[in-house]
Amino acid sequence: MAPHETPIDQKWTEIEHLPEWDEEFYDVYTAKKYGKWIMLKTLKEQYRDKEEYRAMIDKEFDVRYNLAHAHIVMINDYEDVPGLGRCIITDDVYGDSLRKLIDTNRVTADTIYKITHQLVDAMEYVQTNHIVHHPIRPENIIFTENIGNLKLINVGFDQKAHLSPAEASEDIFNFGLVLTEALKAVPEGQRYTDLRRVAAKCTNPDPKMRYRDIQELKLALNNRTNNMLIVLLGFLLVMLGVMAYYIGFQS
Description:
A hairpin with a 2-residue loop joins β2 and β3 (36-43). The chain has 8 helices and 10 strands. α4 packs antiparallel against α5, α4 packs antiparallel against α7 and α5 runs antiparallel to α6 (193-202). It has helices spanning 8-11, 51-64, 98-103, 109-128, 165-184, 193-202, 214-221, 224-250; strands at 12-17, 26-33, 36-43, 75-81, 85-91, 95-97, 131-132, 141-144, 150-152, 158-159. A 5-stranded antiparallel sheet has the order 1-2-3-5-4. The chain has a 3-stranded antiparallel sheet with strand order 6-8-9. With 251 residues, it is of the alpha+beta class.
């Protein structure tokens, strides 16, 4: 055996199925490749020999390979893994899903902060790149095991020249559902009144009553709209005071 070659049973080790991460057509695994932890996403066994589903996973790899964002799971490679077939290989993002945090009453102020900042930043990046994706849900939002960094998985399966206003609005609606459910899981005493209003606006049944885009949503989450109004009002009051003083001085 040449020095650079590694036996197949040493290349892939500690492969473990993660059923709670599975998707409609895919199984998800954690594993070590050459001793480094990674994640594997592969077609469920019943779909592996069907051409339309093989084309589907090929397409997802092509769409996601060049995406690069701190809060989106990165794709590293695409290759055959013994016993699993063709797999999309991603960074290791082992941790707890938002669904698990909600179900086990472990949603904290830090969780809410990351949803309203890191998740929204990831959504903005996905929309900017015109990526078509499945609805954002607590199941595909992961908080990594060691530092709790938010990572969005199941990012997208197609790319368009541009997203329609309806698709952008649907993203905002689903974000509102996620935020609403997370806020309900926060321990009593943390009211988050402003964020509850934001979530309610996101999930308004009438799309025209929701935030127009991610940028307007970010402004609302950061309370910048109110702050700008306060600054503007203060400026006008100062100007009125200056004018009143000037008029009084002249008289």
